[in-house]
Amino acid sequence: MRFPWPEPFQCAAVLSFDVDAESAYVFSNPDKAAAQLAGMEERRFGVRTGVARILKLLDSYGLPASFFVPGYTIEHHTETTRTLLHAGHELGAHGNVHEALDTLSPAQEEQVLKDQLAVWQKYLNVRPEGYRSPAWELNVGTPALLKRYGFLYDSSLMGDDIPYDLDTPSGPLMEVPVQWLLDDAPLYRHIYGSSNGIADPDRVIRMWSQEFKGMYAENGCFILEIKGEQEIGYLRQANRLAMQGMERARAMLVKGPATELELAVQLEAEARLAGADGFGYPTLVSCGTKMGAPHSPALLRRVEPGKPLRIAFGPTVEGYTADVVRTFCLGQPPAELVRLQNGFLEAQEAVIRLLRPGMLCPS
Ligand SMILES: [Zn+2]
Predict the structure, then answer these.
(1) Element (H or E) spanning 321, and its range?
(2) Ligand 1 geometric centre to CA of 42 (Å)
(3) Which of 63, 141, 152, 283 fits a disulfide with 129 by CB distance 3.0 to 4.6 angstroms?
């Protein structure tokens, strides 16, 4: 394997869309853009008609995608952009007015980045984690700039066909590479009078299918799955509900011994009332030596003093489940349990210290 994809996958694929709208035309031909309706209307087709069709198609297959959106598009087609966000797709940055980075000085480039982030904040209240340069141009200082502004990855370069690191003074920035063959622009973008004809769709499908077969054999990839702000918000909310449940269980145990079933029912009822839309698995409450057995159901058995009690609780919010497990002990815990618990905590803290953005689960 050339890249440690999570088992059992041997390659990854992403569907990504750059929602430029009129932005590139406004940047490169400001006079024409201000005077000529035809050029502007041609570029409005995508946001006005194409995006809805793409969303319908993705929805019919249940596929997530990444959309790279210039600040201009967010400002002028705000509702369409919000639709993408609300449909749960990833949104990445794509310049402010689709600026060609190779025409900008380092100071201008930083200002353009600041301007687009301000637009994201104002219209979407979101901070993008991914960046795709307009026209795939990157200056030597761009990776460091993106890293400084908190981006997790760039997707504009062609140095490999698996993700790789770009060195910056503040640590590596992940590059999720692109390539011309899988871009539809050289195949379909028609400029009147130019020699490139519009491609035959059957030919495009054949090219892309063959490329996929090659990439599959080579463990290739175009992008990594990265959580967006909205998804993290759902996870946080699910986690809050799980922690409130654990606090509730503690309070019930302090009052006196309860049965495993009473604890499970109470936790689930309260999480439901507080906004959980379900549970990732049946709530597990089990006391005594067999408490570690997988999928042990909650029974009418009373929690006994001095015996460990394990609760695994997974409230779900908008499809995102927080999986929280806690061990309680009514009264004095046995020395063996304390020793095990401390060893586990040390291991957990060591892992948390090693965590870095972009790491994969197997590592
Ligand atoms: Zn673009």
Answers:
(1) strand 320-321
(2) 15
(3) 152
**Distance between CA 190 and CA 171 in Å, rounded?**
41
Reported as a single tens digit per residue, the pLDDT across 163-198 is 999 999 999 999 999 988 888 887 877 777 766 678
Distance CA 361, CA 7 (A): 10
- Global confidence as pTM: 0.61
**Residues 23, 40: Cα–Cα separation, whole Å:** 9
How do residues 236-249 score in pLDDT, each as one tens digit? 899 999 999 999 98
Residue 179 alpha carbon to ligand 1 centre in Å: 14
Q: How far apart are CA 142 and CA 92, in angstroms?
A: 16
Compute the distance from residue 40 Cα to the ligand 1 centre, in Å. Answer: 15
How close is the Cα of 26 to the center of ligand 1, in Å?
12
Residue 191 alpha carbon to ligand 1 centre in Å: 16
Asked if 263 and 298 touch (Cβ cutoff 8 Å), the reply is yes
**Residue 328: which H helix or E strand, with range?**
strand 324-329
Å from CA of 17 to ligand 1 middle: 9
What distance in angstroms lies between residue 71's CA and the mean position of ligand 1's atoms? Answer: 11
Compute the distance from residue 90 Cα to the ligand 1 centre, in Å: 16
The alpha carbon of 59 and the centre of ligand 1 are apart by a number of angstroms equal to 23
Cβ–Cβ < 8 Å for 108, 115? no
State residue 255's pLDDT score. 86
> In the block, which residue shows the tokens 């087709």?
45
- Find the 24 Cα to ligand 1 centroid distance in Å: 7
Among the listed residues 153, 191, 70, the one whose alpha carbon sits nearest the alpha carbon of residue 359: 153
Contact 145, 166 (CB under 8 A): no
Domains belonging to the chain, first-starting first, are: 16-226 (3.20.20.370), 231-354 (3.90.230.10)
- 110 Cα to the center of ligand 1, angstroms: 19
How far, in Å, CA of 44 to CA of 42, rounded?
6
